[in-house]
């Protein structure tokens, strides 16, 4: 025995010596976390493995990235990093007595040790104590790193603190003595748009002069056009309230001077100045009606059968993240997204950057793969799925005692919401707005290669007919969602609704509690008719008659997408300024044929409105550097600039309207805001720098190649880059918002005017759109419960193998009565004939 113990001691000493040597060799790569370092010790960068998962979590002691047992070897081979802190937690449920009752309390037992690759040699805290006498400086560094990692806040915890929306807002220093102009402005409860650019969302009303202007432009190009900010810079009026957030309890007020959200203790008085009486508003909502909505949409009256299996992974609610969960569940079922982010998963992970937690493609693949991993639970072999795996993947951490607990998309939510003032918080959001935001992110991250958002992309044709000249104008734009209006006057139970309103008024006058109101029954055909009926434009500037007149605008599909998204426009404002949701039931069909809404283009014998041409100038031209340059009315140019329009656009407006005054120039601006060269310098006929000539400034060749690879011509790419100061991301956004103008570019390959005839020139290609039959079948819908998009809850229903399934965050069940009439967003796929 003594000889055995001696041999064992010698072996142990040899092992510790080897460990010492390894630690010496990796000392320079072992870091101690510092303030500001991102420590991922809660979840894997490539999967949803955690310390509670089978195999625990390995945290790199250099980059502080976390990896599950299936991905740590990949990171070691790729980076050469050898030291990892291995964290495992075991859930232990203890029963304690509290108030005479047995109460279960979850506790965790945590084990931490250093693992050295490639041989996976383990070093515990106790081992370090025995090694201290050998190489003190090495062991001190390792001990400090271990202690620092254990003490550091994880990224997920930090994000929860940052996303907490319970920040304490301070009273604005301008609130008490805010100056308000007596200009007679009264703000209506609906129909707002920016007074400069006609944007109809993200609108702010200045509390000094009542100007309604759009908010800041976000980092991703969405949001507003900064006109509210520009107005403050020009006037100094400091406070603005966000339209759409006003309730009897308050509103979002921003101080441009203090650069923060603030409180305004006199907000009721300030709003009343412009006709908004927020203190007398009452939320006339039927509690019974709303409770019924929650029960019906969540199918609470039925005992639903839980499901798990192929594509049936639930997603945890991270605090008002149900909007994200619902949207992503639907997108995961679309083949384009599966192909892009799952079919080549091995390539995506191998090519991931040094910090995969900040890479959009990696995190999309991670989320999409983890959602699909349930498929693998039920398969014995998956070699065909991903050749890098040498054994089946068993997603055991998704289940606790047979119940699905789902995955928590913290890392993904933080990435897609980064820099966005709304999606970076834990506040409830509009699922439709998030879907558009997400599509925008996909577009920006798919500048080359397959773009799955093309599945939703379609072209809209707008036809405007001048009623005086009967001449027409055709334009096209790109869209991703069809917004369907709700014509309340078309309700089939109108008599019942009117009787309920009469009873409500009687109850209100007598002080009795109101009874439950019936739900309006709106035919889907009526919504579709409201979408397609002509719209009357009363202040249309006709280039044919050179004056304002009346015109009609009709909207049709220039192409039909593979997958059609329809939004029911349920959210509006009442006459009392209360934000409300229309309580309607719409008989949304399972199959849909939109062929009758196909755009027909210019008809035989139909005359087009003439293009706006330069009018004769009323002042003489002067010759400057050999080029005829007009003498422009500086006062008119200044007035337009004060409204927030670009200087060069203002100069062109004055020039092309012949110095005839502010009204004519303003009409020109409003009619040409979508021109591709709206903000470009004024170029006169005969100028050597006219459109179509080779630009003198250099353009990044790699940016040109990227845009051309998306299906656009080199001329179009050149025009987009010149209009955005050679910023690639802005150029891509710009090119998609100027499609109709780009298609009319009179240039040929190479950037010079073509020498051939018009007939010999092929029109430059536009954005890639898929087209086909206008026949669709419903496969998913997202429903909202609550009174507005700022509160409530979202769930989605998806049809899988002819069975409707309800996804309510982490709960996934077979649906018995899918409430298709109460949806908010509907998803259709094209019927292949």
TrEMBL record:
Keywords: Disulfide bond, Hydrolase, Metal-binding, Protease, Repeat, Thiol protease, Ubl conjugation pathway, Zinc, Zinc-finger. Residues 170-278 form the UBP-type domain. Residues 509-518 have a biased composition (Low complexity). It comes from the Eukaryota. Residues 631-672, 698-738 form the UBA domain. The active site is at residues 322, 793. Residues 686-697 have a biased composition (Polar residues). One of its GO terms (molecular function) is zinc ion binding. Gene3D superfamilies: Cysteine proteinases, DNA helicase RuvA subunit, C-terminal domain, Zinc/RING finger domain, C3HC4 (zinc finger). The keyword Acetylation does not apply. It catalyses: Thiol-dependent hydrolysis of ester, thioester, amide, peptide and isopeptide bonds formed by the C-terminal Gly of ubiquitin (a 76-residue protein attached to proteins as an intracellular targeting signal). Zn(2+) binds at residues 194, 197, 214, 227. Belongs to the peptidase C19 family. This is Ubiquitin carboxyl-terminal hydrolase.
């Amino acid at each position: 025995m003594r000889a055995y113990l001696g041999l064992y001691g010698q072996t142990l000493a040899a092992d510790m010596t080897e460990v010492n040597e390894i630690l010496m060799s990796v000392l320079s790569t072992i870091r101690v976390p510092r303030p500001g370092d991102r420590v991922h010790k809660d979840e894997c960068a490539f999967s949803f493995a955690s310390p509670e998962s089978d195999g625990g979590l390995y945290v790199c002691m250099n980059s502080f990235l976390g990896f599950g047992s299936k991905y740590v070897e990949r990171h070691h081979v790729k980076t050469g990093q050898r030291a990892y802190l291995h964290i495992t937690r075991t859930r232990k449920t203890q029963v304690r007595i509290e108030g005479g009752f047995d109460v279960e309390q979850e506790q965790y037992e945590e084990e931490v040790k250093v693992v050295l690759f490639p041989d996976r040699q383990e070093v515990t805290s106790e081992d370090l104590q025995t090694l201290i006498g050998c190489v003190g400086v090495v062991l001190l560094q390792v001990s400090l790193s271990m202690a620092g990692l254990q003490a550091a806040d994880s990224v997920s915890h930090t994000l929860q603190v940052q996303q907490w929306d319970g920040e304490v807002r301070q009273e604005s220093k301008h609130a008490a003595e805010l100056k308000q102009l007596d200009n007679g402005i009264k703000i209506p409860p609906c129909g707002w748009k920016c007074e400069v650019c006609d944007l109809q969302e993200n609108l702010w009303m200045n509390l000094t002069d009542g100007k309604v202007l759009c908010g800041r432009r976000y980092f991703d190009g969405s949001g507003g056009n900064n006109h509210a900010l520009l107005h403050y810079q020009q006037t100094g009026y400091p406070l603005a309230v966000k339209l759409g957030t006003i309730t009897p309890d308050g509103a979002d007020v921003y101080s441009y001077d203090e650069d923060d959200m603030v409180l305004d203790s006199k907000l009721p008085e300030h709003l009343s100045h412009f006709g908004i009486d927020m203190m007398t508003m009452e939320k006339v909502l039927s509690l019974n009606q709303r409770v019924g909505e929650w029960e019906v949409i969540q199918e609470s009256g039925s005992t639903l059968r839980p499901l798990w299996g192929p594509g049936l992974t639930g997603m945890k609610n991270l605090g008002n993240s149900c909007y994200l969960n619902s949207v992503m569940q639907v997108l995961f079922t679309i083949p384009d997204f599966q192909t892009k982010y799952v079919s080549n998963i091995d390539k995506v992970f191998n090519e991931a950057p040094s910090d995969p937690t900040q890479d959009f493609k990696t995190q999309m693949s991670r989320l999409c793969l983890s959602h699909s991993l349930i498929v693998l639970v039920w398969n014995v072999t998956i070699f065909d799925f991903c050749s890098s795996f040498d054994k089946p993947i068993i997603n055991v951490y998704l289940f606790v005692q047979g119940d699905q607990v789902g995955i928590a998309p913290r890392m993904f939510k933080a990435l897609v919401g980064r820099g966005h003032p709304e999606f970076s918080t834990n506040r409830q959001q509009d699922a439709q707005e998030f879907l558009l935001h997400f599509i925008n992110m996909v577009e920006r991250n798919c500048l080359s290669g397959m773009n799955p958002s093309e599945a939703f992309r379609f072209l809209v044709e707008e036809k405007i007919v001048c009623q005086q000249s009967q001449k027409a104008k055709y334009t096209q734009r790109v869209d991703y969602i069809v917004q369907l209006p709700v014509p309340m006057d078309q309700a089939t139970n109108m008599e019942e609704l009117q009787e309920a309103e009469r009873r409500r008024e009687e109850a209100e006058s007598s002080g009795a509690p109101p009874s439950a109101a019936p739900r309006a029954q709106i035919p889907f055909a009526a919504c579709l008719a409201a979408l397609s009926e002509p719209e009357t434009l009363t202040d249309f500037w006709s280039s044919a008659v050179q004056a304002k007149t009346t015109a009609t605008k009709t909207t049709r599909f220039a192409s039909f997408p593979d997958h059609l998204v329809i939004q029911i426009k349920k959210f509006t404002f009442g006459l009392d300024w209360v934000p409300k949701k229309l309580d309607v039931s719409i008989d949304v069909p399972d199959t849909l044929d939109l062929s009758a809404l196909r755009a027909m283009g210019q008809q035989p014998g139909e005359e087009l409105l003439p293009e706006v041409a330069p009018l004769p100038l009323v002042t003489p031209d002067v010759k400057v550097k050999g080029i005829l340059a007009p003498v422009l009315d500086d006062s008119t140019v200044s007035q337009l600039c004060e409204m927030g329009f670009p200087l060069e656009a203002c100069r062109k407006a004055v020039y092309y309207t012949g110095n005839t005054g502010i009204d004519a120039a303003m009409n020109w601006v409003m009619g040409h805001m979508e021109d591709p060269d709206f903000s470009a310098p004024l170029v006169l006929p005969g100028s050597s720098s006219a459109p179509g000539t080779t630009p003198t400034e250099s353009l990044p060749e790699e940016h040109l190649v990227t845009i051309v690879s998306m299906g656009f011509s080199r001329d179009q790419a050149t025009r987009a880059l010149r209009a955005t100061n050679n910023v690639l991301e802005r150029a891509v956004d710009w090119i998609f918002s100027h499609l109709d103008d780009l298609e009319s570019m009179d240039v040929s390959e190479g950037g010079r005017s073509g020498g051939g005839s018009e007939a010999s020139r092929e029109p430059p290609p536009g954005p890639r759109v898929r087209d086909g039959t206008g026949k669709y079948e419903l496969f998913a819908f997202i429903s909202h419960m609550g009174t507005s998009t700022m509160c409530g809850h979202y769930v989605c229903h998806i049809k899988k193998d002819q069975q409707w399934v309800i996804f309510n965050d982490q709960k996934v069940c077979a649906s018995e009565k899918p409430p298709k009439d109460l949806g908010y967003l509907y998803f259709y796929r094209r019927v292949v004939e």
